[in-house]
Specification:
The protein is an alpha+beta fold and about 290 residues long. It has 2 domains: about 180 residues, Beta-Lactamase (2-Layer Sandwich), CATH 3.30.450; about 80 residues, no CATH class. Helix content is about 60%, strand content about 10%. The protein has a 4-stranded antiparallel beta sheet with strand order 1-4-3-2, sandwiched between helices. Helix 1 runs antiparallel to helix 2. The two termini are about 40 Å apart. The relative contact order is 0.12. The model has no long low-confidence stretch (mean pLDDT about 80).
């Protein structure tokens, strides 16, 4: 087996092992980075929904209530209604994202928290210092990433959610007087929850990982070619010249020129040693003759 072949086998082994380690570390980094990007987009959606809720509660609801009849009820005055309606427009651009305002004791049954959402709300109740909570769960879409933010009952909520007698008659007629009451001001009663399948960050990470693999393979091949060229001209070619010259001398050729010594490395020392040995051999042959 030739020296260059042995060198390439060792190089392939070393670069292959290093490449696998780099690929594993890179994929973990890309998955975490993609997950962070998805969470950042979810945070923007959450902030947008919160802004819509606050604007509806502070600006829109008072105007609608002033222009409406007594004891009337307009869904547009409910912050959750506005937030959900606004998110539907975002959903066209971000179809993988889902938004839900889950409530433990809602007036509208559509906002009733699922079991896992109830667990999230109770966690936020117990950890009032947390303004955001993220995690993963299994769903019909597979592994799903979610981001939750607590919703505390405000003073403006009490008119509709304290006792049935204080709520608008139209709301009672629409939803009944059993659910959605007994809220306490300041307590966490619901959560804004943005969910997205883990397939999205995985897809983002896979696309970046495939590009990285292509660049890594190109870099490894370029490195091997560059090292092969360097080894050939720095090591193999000078040794081959020494070998060819030694072969000619051993066959009795006398007009073989001396080898040029370039540099001070080990190859140059081998070449210089060969030249001295050849001179010594010629002198020895002359003495014998």
């Amino acid at each position: 087996m030739r020296l260059l072949t042995k060198f390439n086998l060792i190089l392939v082994l070393l670069l292959g092992v290093c490449g696998l380690i780099i690929a594993e570390l890179a994929y973990t980094f890309l998955i975490n980075n993609a997950r962070r990007e998805v969470l950042e987009e979810a945070q923007l959606m959450m902030a947008n929904a919160k802004s819509v809720r606050d604007y509806t509660a502070d600006e829109v609801a008072p105007l609608l209530e002033q222009g409406s009849k007594a004891n009337s009820f307009s869904p547009e005055t409910v912050p959750a209604f506005s937030a959900l309606a606004t998110f539907q427009h975002l959903h066209d651009k971000y179809p993988d994202y889902e938004y839900h305002e889950a409530t433990l004791n809602p007036t509208n049954p559509a906002h009733h928290a699922l079991d896992w959402e109830a667990d999230v709300i109770n966690y936020l109740r117990e950890h009032r210092d947390k303004q955001e909570y993220s995690g993963e769960r299994m769903s019909v879409k597979g592994r799903t990433l979610y981001l939750a933010s607590p919703i505390a009952a405000q003073e403006s909520c009490m008119q509709c959610h304290s006792v049935p007698s204080a709520a608008p008659a139209a709301m009672i007629a629409k939803y009944g007087s059993i659910h959605g009451f007994g809220w306490k001001q300041g307590s966490v009663v619901a959560a804004q929850i943005v969910s997205v399948p883990m397939s999205l960050p995985v897809q983002i990470a896979n696309q970046a990982f495939h590009r990285l693999l292509i660049y890594l393979i190109i870099a490894i091949l370029a490195t091997m070619i560059a090292l092969d060229i360097g080894v050939y001209y720095i090591v193999i070619r000078p040794l081959q010249l020494v070998s060819d010259t030694a072969d000619r001398v051993s066959k009795g050729e006398k007009a073989v020129p001396q080898l040029a010594v370039r540099g001070r490395d080990e190859i140059a020392k081998v070449t210089a040693s060969f030249n001295r040995m050849r001179v010594s051999l010629e002198k020895a042959l002359k003495l014998l003759g």
